[in-house]
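User: Here's a structure from my thesis project, written as structure tokens. My advisor, Dr. K., wants to see whether a designed sequence matches the one we expressed. Can you design one independently, without my sequence as a hint?
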């Protein structure tokens, strides 16, 4: 489909189009690319995004071209109508060429009417292009949402793994004869703190955290 072709428009049109992007979209995409990277992108969705982006670019160019073309056609119709009126007036003054000029004016009138009908048909096409643009924006929104969900999944998975490793370290923790542990034990004794109880409570907190993270991973 030509709307998905990378050769549909040239470099100058692409530069013009990029210059007309909104500041908010540009900043948003820049921040997303700078701070949020999907580590394992799915090739299927990468290809889908590339094709939809090309379609959006080409639709945007097509829409602008149709608007410009219709505007110029409308201007031409107005000029031809003025010319038709002038030829009709000239036919009334030049009686020797009245029939010839009248025929010419009639042809101009029919041609102008055909051009206006063509403009109406092009306007219908503009509506279709607008619908395609809405479709493109819907696809773009779905793909962005899908990427965000994958980012959330990867971040939550990392957090779950970090919590699991922390729990395993706590479970495997064994006291040694270091000065730091000796001082810590003495301080806990003075405070009346039960080290075993603290360890159990910490493991319970880590278990609860893992359950919460696991819930959000699988919803």
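Assistant: Designed independently from the structure alone:
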């Amino acid at each position: 489909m030509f709307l998905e072709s990378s050769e549909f428009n040239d470099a100058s049109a692409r530069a013009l189009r990029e210059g007309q992007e909104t500041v908010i979209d540009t900043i948003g995409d820049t921040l997303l690319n700078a701070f949020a990277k999907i580590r394992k992108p799915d090739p299927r969705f990468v290809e889908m995004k590339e094709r939809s982006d090309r379609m959006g670019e080409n639709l945007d160019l097509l829409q602008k071209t149709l608007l410009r073309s219709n505007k110029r056609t409308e201007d031409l119709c107005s000029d031809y109508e003025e010319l038709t009126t002038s030829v009709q007036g000239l036919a009334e003054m030049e009686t020797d060429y009245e029939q010839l000029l009248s025929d010419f004016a009639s042809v101009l009138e029919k041609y102008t009417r055909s051009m206006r009908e063509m403009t109406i048909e092009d306007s219908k096409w503009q509506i279709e292009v607008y619908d395609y643009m809405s479709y493109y924006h819907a696809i773009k929104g779905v793909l962005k949402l899908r990427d965000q969900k994958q980012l959330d999944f990867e971040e939550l998975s990392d957090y779950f793994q970090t919590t699991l490793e922390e729990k395993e370290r706590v479970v495997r923790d064994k006291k040694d004869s270091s000065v730091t542990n000796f001082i810590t034990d003495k301080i806990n004794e003075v405070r009346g703190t039960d080290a075993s109880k603290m360890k159990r409570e910490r493991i319970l907190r880590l278990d609860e955290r893992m359950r919460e993270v696991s819930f959000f991973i699988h919803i």
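When you compare it with your expressed construct, this may help: The radius of gyration is 36 Å.
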